[in-house]
Amino acid sequence: MQAMAVSDRDAGIKGMSLMELPYPHAAENDVVVRVHAAGFTPGELDWPGTWTDRAGRDRTPSVPGHELSGVVVELGYGTTGLTVGQRVFGLADWARDGSLAEYTAVEARNLAPLPADIDHAVAAALPISGLTAWQGLFTHGHLTTGQTVLIHGAAGGVGSLAVQLAHEVGAYVIGTGRTADRDQALALGADAFVDLETEKLEDTGEVDVVFDVIGGEILARSAALVWDGGTLVTIAEPPEVRPRNGHAVFFVVEPDRSQLIDLASRVRDGRLKPIVSAVRPLAEAVTAFAPDTRTRGKTIIQVNDAIR
């Protein structure tokens, strides 16, 4: 099969190329998915799991990409809950070859059924961004109706979904970002917007929940904005500065089939709209990974067939 893989850890994206790799093996409780569309995280070439398996053994050439949408073509021994020919979407394992390949083996529990009226490009934009937004706001932030939430990076892949989910639950939503992000954040449901280039973050006042995807100085300054009993949630890095009378949580997104099903239901109803900024063929995945490629929303890689 064809796959976009990296053969040299030190080379980064310069070591990424389209190559022929063996068809994946379906282990116990796995399925093999024919990938129609794939999503990726630009920083994943820095993750330890990209280069070694769970036992710490080198697994180059490594196939990046962990979000996928496609069709089940094979069931591993003992696999239940999914069938051959079923449309699915979800997360590939962090320490196994990912989704930038024509076929990939995935634990069945990491996938959810994909309704026929959601196209593969949209579905591939949901798993990491959607689950991260959901878990950050509700699992870790415990956001509820009537509370105030500050969402950094409100026009990005995670932030744009977080704004929509927080708005739907009835929270007062303050988004942050660059000047060019204001209109989009407000259109998605933010009640207010802070331009991090021209406005002072501290002028927002105190909030119940801060959801951070930026880290660094912005994360440190955000701790002082959390009300007593509130929560600072971040996916960027463990916070060095914590809220004085609140909580701080750093987390890594977890696969969750029930949450994926809930997210897909919201997409079908029009309550949630993932922002797909571009769809590129597998051969152009190297360009999409480039660190200077900044887009609003997600760049999706088309792997097999026309995305539909």
Automatic annotation (TrEMBL):
InterPro entries: ADH-like_N, ER, GroES-like_sf, NAD(P)-bd_dom_sf, YIM1/Zinc_Alcohol_DH_Fams
GO molecular function, one term: oxidoreductase activity
SMART domains: PKS_ER
Domain Enoyl reductase (ER), first and last residues per copy: 11-301
Residues in coiled coil: none
Name of this protein: NADPH:quinone reductase
Organism lineage: Bacteria, Bacillati, Actinomycetota, Actinomycetes, Mycobacteriales
